[in-house]
Amino acid sequence: MTRLTLRRPARRTRAGFTLVELMVAMMMFTVGLLALASTSAVVVSQMGDAGRMGVAASVAQTRIERLRSGACTTALSGTNTGRGVSESWTVTPMVRSARIDVTITYATRRGLRSQSYRSMMRCV
Predict the structure, then answer these.
(1) Are 67 and 77 in contact (CB under 8 A)?
(2) Considering the domain boundaries, does residue 27 fall inside one?
(3) Which domain holds residue 93?
(4) N or C: which end of the chain has fewer CB within 10 A?
(5) C-alpha neighbours within 13 Å on the C-beta side of residue 31
């Protein structure tokens, strides 16, 4: 007795992706690129605002250092505009000291913003 075996034709496997898989991958890639582009625009605008905040803090620091380097009798209140910011400062005499209040106003993409700084100077 001989045994007969039935042979099935070998199934060819195809390497690659289907059209649906490629379309889904393209959609996911597109969504990722759009998210990246919108995030980068926000980051750029926030960096600009941070730069203006840095300039404002630097102007305030410079003003306070100038006032503290002189004598209490020569420290006077005043205003000034420069480097894209407006500054106003008030010197309030106290007992053996003076209080310095500096207000800086600068433009941001949402309008004007003000920051206040306070320091003390010793009077001898």
Answers:
(1) no
(2) no
(3) 34-122
(4) N
(5) 6
